Amino acid sequence: MKLLYHETDLANFGDDMNDKIWRTLVPQIDEDSSDANGFMGIGTIIGKRFPKVDHLHVFSSGSGYDPIQFQADKVTVWCVRGPLTARILKQTEDKALTDGAVLSPLVYPAAQKSGKTLFIPHWQTVHGLEDVWNEVCEGAGITLMSPVNTPEDVISAISAADRVITESLHGAILADTYGVPWTACTFSSNFSSYKWADWTSSVKVPFYLHTLTAPSPELFKLFGRPARRGVTEIDAEDEYADMVSWDVAKEEGAKLGPAPNKGGLKSILKAAAYSGPIAAMTMGVKPATTIKQFRDIIDGNHFYLSDSELRSDLRREMLSRLQKCMDSVGVPANLHAHM
Q1: Distance of alpha carbon 246 from alpha carbon 8, whole angstroms
Q2: How far apart are CA 243 and CA 261, in angstroms?
Q3: What is the DSSP letter of 110?
Q4: Distance between CA 80 and CA 199 in Å, rounded?
Q5: How far apart are CA 227 and CA 262, in angstroms?
Q6: Helix, strand or coil, per DSSP, at residue 37
Q7: Strand, coil or helix: 120
Q8: Which pTM value belongs to this model?
Q9: SS3 282
Q10: Is 243 helix (H, G, I), strand (E, B) or coil?
Q11: What are the C-alpha distances in Å from 200 to residues 76, 222, 265, 284?
């Protein structure tokens, strides 16, 4: 069975943890390169192009970025990230389980508590702007953890923290998995509310992204600015509706551009027009503004955490389905000890 997940030249812990999680739990998952089965794991990857397989097994993956073209007789959906992905794939409600990172404590033990408040930016946000983010985090009294570090380093820091502020979806997923209160934020229009709400629904916590001011004009120019208000489930439903209408039009043979996603060219061009030093300063695009917003989040105690019993139930159910998946293709696995 071929292990399939998103791999890039620039590391991203949310994708990179696939390798260790699945190979630790099922050591023989990727031993036979001639196997015609593919195992799609953690990430917003449903619809992405991977090496061709005769039969695809979807396991805890999410949709959100790519148009989906599945042949029903060549795909088995064991579980997906949440109910929005299940609806897009026209699957029954029981297929909406949660993100596969809920299994991470079985592979990455929790670290000793550090008492820190951690900030995890999106990998596109931090790349090339590490000095700016270090200045912001030092000023706010929090610790920066770059998502381009190894999964071992990021997960260790998350599990040790007292609280996590994150722009990275898997920063929130892992914080929740390890019982660490978390809150989500964004500094641009370069995000998917759909994938966030998909996961938060699976663990029954409210969906809300704080829309904060970017500390640098470079981010403002590259990715656009977010709405002035926070992002909620209403925005996610709107994005879902756009994806459904795009998918229906595709099925009807319409000529289409890319699937609706993130901020779009219009918002980026608009941001570029206002990204000069004077305009940026006028609109508060500077480290001091971001520092204050971080402090306001901390002082307001705007953090979430799912129910611990629910997380345990989801983990046991995911292990049970993983065992059934491996049994169906004849890959040796003994997951009962973890249940």
Answers
A1: 27
A2: 9
A3: P
A4: 10
A5: 12
A6: strand
A7: strand
A8: 0.88
A9: helix
A10: helix
A11: 24, 28, 28, 31
Q: What are the residues whose beta carbons fall under 8 Å from the beta carbon of 306, sequence distance 6 or more?
A: 176, 203, 204, 205
Q: Tell me how far CA of residue 31 lies from CA of 26, 27, 95, 336, in angstroms.
A: 10, 8, 27, 21
Residue among 215, 233, 257 at smallest CA distance from 83: 233
Is 74 in contact with 57 (CB distance < 8 Å)?
Answer: no
The terminus-to-terminus CA distance of the chain in angstroms comes to 23
Angle formed at CA 18 by CA 206 and CA 15, multiple of 5 degrees: 65
CA 74 to chain centre: 26
Kindly state the tokens that stand for 42: 């953690």
138-177 in b/e form (b: 16+ CB < 10 A) is ebbebbbbbbbbebeebbbbbbbbebbbbbbbbbbbbbbb
Farthest CA pair distance, the chain: 63
- Where b means 16+ CB within 10 Å and e means fewer, 276-289 reads eeeebeebebbbeb
For residue 129, the Cα-to-chain-centroid distance in whole angstroms is: 21
Do residues 74 and 52 lie in contact, with contact meaning Cβ atoms separated by under 8 Å? Answer: no
Which residues are CB-contacts of 297 (< 8 A; sequence separation ≥ 6)? Answer: 165, 183, 185, 210
Phi-psi region of 264 (alpha: psi -120 to 50; beta: other; left: phi over 0): left
Token pair, residue 149, equals: 């570090």
* Joined tokens for residue 129: 């702007």
Q: What does R_g of the chain's alpha carbons equal in angstroms? A: 20
pLDDT tens digits, 207-266 = 999 999 889 888 877 776 665 667 777 777 777 777 665 444 444 443 333 334 444 444
In tens, the pLDDT along 254-307 reads: 333 333 444 444 444 444 444 455 545 555 788 999 999 999 999 999 999 999
List pLDDT tens digits, range 106-164: 999 999 999 999 999 988 888 888 999 999 999 999 999 999 899 999 999 999 999 99
Measured distance CA(291)–CA(137) in Å, rounded: 7
The token duo for 284 is: 């508060």
Helices (H), the chain: 13-25, 83-88, 123-126, 130-140, 151-160, 169-177, 193-202, 217-223, 233-251, 264-273, 277-282, 287-300, 308-329
Question: Smallest Cα–Cα separation from 283: which of 221, 231, 209?
Answer: 221
